[in-house]
Amino acid sequence: xDAFGRAQRGWGxxxxxxxxxxxxxxxxxxxxxxxxxxxxxxxxYENFMTGAHDRIAESQAGTYNGIDVRLFERHLDIGAGLPVxxxxxxxxxxxxxxxxxxxxxxxxxxxWNPGMVAAPGMRGGVFGRRGxxxxxxLSLWSSAADHEDYRTDRFPELRRRxxxxxxxxxxxxxxVELDPSWTVRPQVGQP
Length: 191
Description:
Layout: H1 2-8, E1 20-29, E2 32-39, H2 42-50, H3 53-57, E3 73-78, E4 88-96, H4 101-117, E5 122-130, E6 134-141, H5 144-153, H6 155-162, H7 164-167, E7 168-178
Antiparallel strand pairs: 1-2, 1-7, 3-5, 4-6, 4-7, 5-6
Helix pairs in contact: 4-6
């Protein structure tokens, strides 16, 4: 884990890449890193992957056993959007039942987003979509305690009001303790 964490700090070169909007990450459990990067568009991301990616990634070779990369299109901002600062990120990876996607998106916009934004310590987030039935809800929190208060005090009522049980085929998630040394911001003047 230490070697991976040290190598992750080398991704600072991303700050100068055209179309890069920000990156954060940390550990969700021992040995499991979660890294989220934001790009202006698919074209800029693909240019990075065929250009500078391999050179930057070289320093991290041999520090991990496997990698799973998923691309989501930003569908809605939650509050201030992302990237913003926080100490904890909550990732909710949702698979929605066929025919329930429109309701799921509407519930995110009208129930979940306002409910999360009203919670103390919620810093911002993004609701992303991949294909027809796969979604990601990423929220940043000031602390794990703030997220836990939200989870116990507000989440049950929001889940009931959103009819999430009718929408979801499955949901997995992770609470990620962000490592500030893994955060990369775009250089000033980058779009």
